Amino acid sequence: MGKIRYIFFMALLCLAFFSCQKDQSIKDVQTLPTTNPAILAMTLSPGNLLATSGTLNITIGDSTYTFDAQKDSIAFVNLFLDNKQYFGFTAINKNHTMSFGISSAGFAENNSNNKVAGTQFLLSNNNKANLQYTLTPSLNLQDSSSITLTAFAQDSTIAKGTFITILNNTRHSLPYYKATGSFDLKIK
Description:
Layout: H1 2-20, H2 22-31, H3 37-44, E1 49-50, E2 53-60, E3 63-68, E4 73-81, E5 84-92, E6 98-105, E7 112-123, E8 131-135, H4 139-142, E9 146-154, E10 157-168, E11 176-186
Antiparallel strand pairs: 1-4, 2-3, 2-11, 4-5, 5-6, 6-7, 7-8, 7-9, 8-10, 9-10, 10-11
């Protein structure tokens, strides 16, 4: 479990770095000629991209939460940890009251389905207790978790697809929650 927390900590650090540099990255990408902005952006910042448009949605139970790249920070990240490659997404809303991260071992590829390696969803609300959802420790339930990439690094698309993951929240009597989501992230 410590490895998963480390991965998310590193992903959140990348997100914080990229959110501070969002305007400069947009300007850099827009001034260089290319036929594929997503691939060009990856060459400017190898493996890590801050989306400038698009959404990431996550549904838990009857609630759907949306991150909008035009106002929130959503990053596609690649990490190399303990001689293993990981990729995933991190997102934090403009008000810093909601954050989400999901990762998978391996390389991001077009038309691929990958097992989830880690997930964390945090909600902060002054009127209610803070909620924290993390990938369930049950290995049997983790088998049904996956990230599907239907498009990756195509034209202005960073990544497009869906995910399913099983989350655990120890503050509720029901310990496991199925979370589904979709993402359509673009560089312009």
